[in-house]
Automatic annotation (TrEMBL):
Name of the molecule in the record: Peptide chain release factor 1
Provenance organism: uncultured Solirubrobacteraceae bacterium
Pfam families membership: baeRF_family10 (PF18854)
Bilayer-crossing regions: none
Signal sequence interval, chain numbering: none
Length: 380
């Protein structure tokens, strides 16, 4: 199975899964090769998370007998998936499995970035780890010179080489005179055709598996020529440049240099959003702070970017008629009795994904402490 590049549509499909009966078992396994390179280390992690899932099943309240049996069957199916050969192949650094037999749900995602190993049982798929790992942003790294090109995709924690392009471009010679001038024009034309070929290949890749952001690594004399022939959709996604030998850099070299550049960009972007949030809240302009205000904005589809603290949990309720969210035991305008929501933060994340809005999971819990762990930038 190939490594999955998650899209907004993939996340939305997961959040749309809301079984009428039973529970969803979500299991995550970290396969970071720096920690779990050996088969015994992976086996220990697998046994640990399966034991955690089995214990969680025993702790679930309010299930009928057939629902409990179905959960145990889901666990056995997940056990078989985690113990199959080749689980950590093809650049896989994490696995997420979602199972609910009563709803016909069994989704296996092989991820290019690590996730925290854990098992969660809720009424809906637990998607927050996918956001925490940065899977929402799909990075491309293009290394190119006048003869060769290599394309990688992934993120800060994992990049996989997906394409290598070699074109027959002759080298310069020192004969001199008119002959050299004609020869040089021929070489330049071949190099120009090579860059156009690279641009066509990467745009075709983008059409089938889009990039959200792009890094370019090329000799100084080639950078502007390469960017000039890229499709505008790709040119506007360029976030920076990396210094790497196109033909001789190892995958480890690319991961080290490009991964660090991606991490710096993500940190800068996070700080920019948090600064914008503080500024807007200070001016009382298109921002919300705390559960009550954020839920009100979500219920009105006004959220542009939801910002939540990693690990935050809060019980809540959902209006069964309108899907609106509220605090625990909230009253709703429809007059309907609210359905209990085990994890209001996860429900808010699901609604944010449904509205095609962005989500930022902040790892430092102190960052949002004055906002109760949750805030939002608003569209209007």
């Amino acid at each position: 199975m190939a490594v999955n590049s998650l899209t907004q549509a993939d996340l939305r499909a997961l959040t749309d899964a809301r079984p009428e009966r039973g529970r969803v078992l979500s299991v995550f396994l970290n396969l970071d090769p720096t920690e779990f390179a050996s088969a015994p280390a992976r086996a220990t992690a697998i046994n640990s998370v399966l034991n955690e899932a089995e214990h969680a099943i025993g702790e679930v309240d309010g299930l009928e007998h057939d629902e409990l049996l179905s959960l145990r069957e889901d666990l056995e199916r997940i056990r078989g998936e985690l113990n199959r050969d080749g689980l950590a192949a093809d650049g896989t650094r994490g696995v997420a499995i979602y199972a609910c037999g009563l709803a016909g749900l069994f989704e296996v995602l092989q991820l290019p970035q690590p996730v925290q190993t854990q098992a969660v049982i809720e009424r809906t798929p637990f998607v927050r780890p996918l956001l925490q790992s940065g899977h929402g942003k799909r990075w491309g790294v293009l290394l190119v010179n006048r003869r060769s090109a290599r394309l990688f995709r992934g993120g800060a924690s994992g990049l996989q080489e997906t394409d290598r392009i070699e074109d027959d471009v002759h080298r310069q010679h020192m004969q001199g005179g008119w002959s050299q001038a004609r020869y040089q024009r021929s070489v330049d034309k071949e190099a120009e055709d090579h860059l156009k070929h690279v641009a066509d290949v990467i745009f075709d890749t983008h059409k089938h598996q889009p990039f959200d952001a792009l890094l370019v690594g090329a000799p100084e004399e080639t950078v502007s020529d390469m960017e000039a022939v890229l499709h505008p959709y790709l040119r506007e996604r360029i976030k920076g440049h990396v210094q790497l030998d196109v033909e001789h850099s190892s995958p480890e070299d690319v991961q080290r240099v490009a991964g660090a550049a991606i991490e710096r960009h993500q940190e800068a972007y996070e700080q920019e959003l948090l600064s914008r949030l503080d500024e807007n809240l200070g001016r009382n302009l298109r921002a919300a702070s705390g559960f009550d205000d954020v839920l009100a904005a979500l219920n009105q589809a006004r959220v542009e970017i939801l910002v939540v603290s990693d690990g935050l949990q809060e019980p809540g309720s959902r209006d069964p008629l309108t899907g609106m969210l509220g605090r625990e035991n909230s009253g709703f305008a429809s007059g309907a009795a609210g359905e209990p929501v085990d994890n209001l933060v996860e429900a808010a994340i699901e609604k944010t994904i449904e509205q095609s809005a962005e989500i930022l999971v902040v790892r430092d819990p102190e960052t949002l402490v004055e906002h109760g762990g949750i805030a939002a930038l608003l569209r209007f």
